[in-house]
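REQUEST FORM: STRUCTURE PREDICTION
Request ID: SP-0412
Submitted by: Lab K.M.
Chain count: 1
Length (residues): 126
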Amino acid sequence: MTTSDQFASVRYVVDDVSAAVDFYTTHLGFTARVNVAPAFADVVRGPLRLLLSGPASSGARATPAGTTAGRNRIHLVVKDLDAEIDRLRGAGLSFESEVVSGPGGRQILLADPAGNLVELFEATGA
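STATUS: Completed
RESULT:
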């Protein structure tokens, strides 16, 4: 198992590592740790380590041909979803869904430059 000083890691396969690093660090508050573009980069936000694997990386090469993306996404909690939507739209980004409300809160989906999904989520009563 992990300890509190370790990251939980998620790998996203991307077409352009530099564009992905720019997207996550500029718009979503990640910090770059390792950047050996065009093959690979490693960005973090809190305990989440996002591994960005370009076409030349071993992580991308290990993905079988014809594999399509699932409905998985990273989940980022925000305090004010409407303010985040306004900020990101103001930066020229568009969303993959409308705001959806449920018993636990509200969410909207955003895609990175390679089409990987990011869920922005505001908990009920936040």
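NOTES: The chain has a mean pLDDT of 89.
Reviewed by: T.R.
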